[in-house]
């Protein structure tokens, strides 16, 4: 069927007077070219990473039992295809035990590397603990996976400069995470005296060129939860940068225009920020519409629409200080749907699809690759990936849940139809 398909296309296109160079057929073995709908013109954009190919009327039916083979919705129009350098996830929660084994394959499928958060129980506070966790992640990966976990240390008031040296010497630890005590999941062991007890550690981090990753919220109960990021910027982050101007800092999962403006105001290449898919497409109404929505609850909490728009403007501007960090944070369903539900949105299976939607809507698909694949490694001083992923604009349905040994996990956009389908391609 494949050979007859190839010989059929030139005659079919010629009869419609269409230029042959405008057609790109991908994964021919997946499709049965019985009939092609050319009622819409082929699209050819100037960017080399964006192509369009004819999707057959009879779309392949892909099972949903294993993620990576989602339900593909029937379609017959010309479809856009993006080929981009394989992205990295610069903020990821993989958990441990059964949950780790259930979710790591989703990240490994779409990302080359990921900065793995250390807020386990007990937290990853030493280089030895980070190396043990690293081994657990590698054992949980699917056979043949090239996914690389980039480990982090959990900063505490008792962390020593010598531990930072050991972390750098390990070759697997790339950053230190600052959790203000009580700010988020498993942060009870976090920092209470950043400018006092932690000062020698921050000095050593500068010497070792090791970034500080910041959960940017104050924990003062007198500060409104929707204002905690802004107050953190004004009372903690700005003084931190002034006192340690050579310290590399990533303000993680920024959620407000205040944080965006602060990052944009910093010169010298020492301050950057990660942005999540949920904060680009959801605002705080999403937590309450139609009743309380626990699977839209995360920390930092979703903010007003004006802040969401500021985030979209920042990431689609091409500013190299902003890069991908999903903050994907899985919890078993019952731990979300209970009287005191956990914060966290599990988005690894859908993150790239949602980022692509955001950039397309903003008319900035030509800037997607830098945000997902270039800005992060450039800031960390790491080489860019050499392999590629392709995203095809064809609708597919997100699974309603993922089952594992201890229960099930509800992903972001569960049961919804997304417009961009992700598939890996061979290294180049």
TrEMBL record:
<keyword id="KW-0862">Zinc</keyword>
<feature type="domain" description="Amidohydrolase-related">
    <location>
        <begin position="89"/>
        <end position="390"/>
    </location>
</feature>
<dbReference type="GO" id="GO:0006207">
    <property type="term" value="P:'de novo' pyrimidine nucleobase biosynthetic process"/>
</dbReference>
<dbReference type="GO" id="GO:0006221">
    <property type="term" value="P:pyrimidine nucleotide biosynthetic process"/>
</dbReference>
<dbReference type="GO" id="GO:0046872">
    <property type="term" value="F:metal ion binding"/>
</dbReference>
<dbReference type="GO" id="GO:0004151">
    <property type="term" value="F:dihydroorotase activity"/>
</dbReference>
<dbReference type="InterPro" id="IPR004721">
    <property type="entry name" value="DHOdimr"/>
</dbReference>
<dbReference type="InterPro" id="IPR032466">
    <property type="entry name" value="Metal_Hydrolase"/>
</dbReference>
<keyword id="KW-0378">Hydrolase</keyword>
<comment type="similarity">
    <text>Belongs to the metallo-dependent hydrolases superfamily. DHOase family. Class II DHOase subfamily.</text>
</comment>
<keyword id="KW-0479">Metal-binding</keyword>
<keyword id="KW-0665">Pyrimidine biosynthesis</keyword>
<dbReference type="InterPro" id="IPR002195">
    <property type="entry name" value="Dihydroorotase_CS"/>
</dbReference>
<dbReference type="GO" id="GO:0009507">
    <property type="term" value="C:chloroplast"/>
</dbReference>
<protein>
    <recommendedName>
        <fullName>Dihydroorotase, mitochondrial</fullName>
        <ecNumber>3.5.2.3</ecNumber>
    </recommendedName>
</protein>
<dbReference type="InterPro" id="IPR006680">
    <property type="entry name" value="Amidohydro-rel"/>
</dbReference>
<comment type="pathway">
    <text>Pyrimidine metabolism; UMP biosynthesis via de novo pathway; (S)-dihydroorotate from bicarbonate: step 3/3.</text>
</comment>
<dbReference type="Pfam" id="PF01979">
    <property type="entry name" value="Amidohydro_1"/>
</dbReference>
């Amino acid at each position: 069927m494949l050979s007859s398909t190839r010989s059929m296309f030139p005659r079919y296109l010629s009869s419609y007077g269409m230029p042959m160079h405008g057609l790109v057929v991908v994964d021919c073995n997946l499709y049965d070219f019985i009939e092609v709908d050319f009622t819409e013109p082929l699209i050819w954009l100037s960017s080399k990473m964006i192509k369009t190919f004819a999707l057959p009327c009879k779309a392949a039916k892909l099972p949903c039992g294993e993620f990576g083979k989602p339900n593909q919705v029937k379609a017959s129009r010309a479809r856009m295809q993006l080929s981009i350098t394989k992205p990295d996830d610069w903020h990821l929660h993989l958990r441990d035990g059964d949950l780790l084994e259930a979710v790591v394959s989703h990240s490994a499928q779409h990302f080359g590397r990921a900065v793995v958060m250390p807020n386990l129980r007990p937290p990853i506070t030493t280089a030895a603990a980070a190396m043990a966790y690293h081994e657990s992640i590698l054992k949980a990966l699917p056979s043949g996976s090239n996914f690389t976990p980039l480990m982090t240390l959990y900063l505490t008031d008792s962390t020593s400069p010598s531990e930072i040296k050991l972390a750098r010497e390990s070759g697997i630890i790339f950053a230190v995470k600052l959790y203000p005590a009580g700010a988020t999941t498993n942060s009870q062991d976090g920092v209470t005296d950043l400018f006092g007890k932690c000062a020698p550690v921050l000095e050593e981090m500068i010497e070792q060129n090791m970034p500080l990753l910041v959960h940017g919220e104050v924990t003062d109960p007198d500060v409104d939860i929707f204002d905690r990021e802004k107050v953190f910027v004004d009372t903690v982050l700005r003084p931190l940068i002034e006192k340690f101007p050579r310290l590399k800092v990533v303000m993680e999962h920024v959620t407000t225009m205040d944080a965006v403006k602060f990052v944009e105001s910093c010169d010298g290449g020492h301050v950057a920020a990660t942005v999540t898919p949920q904060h680009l497409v959801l605002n705080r109404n999403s937590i309450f519409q139609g009743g309380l929505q626990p699977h839209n609850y995360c920390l930092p909490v979703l903010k007003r629409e004006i802040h969401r728009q500021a985030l979209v403007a920042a990431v689609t501007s091409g500013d190299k200080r902003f890069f991908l960090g999903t903050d994907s944070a899985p919890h078993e369903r019952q731990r979300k749907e209970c009287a005191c539900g956990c914060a966290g949105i599990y988005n690894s299976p859908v993150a790239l699809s949602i980022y692509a939607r955001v950039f397309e809507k903003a008319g900035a698909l030509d800037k997607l690759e830098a945000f997902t694949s270039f800005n992060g490694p450039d800031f960390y001083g790491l080489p860019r990936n050499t392999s590629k992923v392709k995203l095809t604009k064809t609708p597919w349905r997100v699974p309603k849940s993922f089952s594992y040994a201890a229960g099930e996990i509800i992903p972001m956009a569960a049961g919804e139809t997304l417009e961009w389908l992700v598939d890996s391609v061979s290294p180049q």
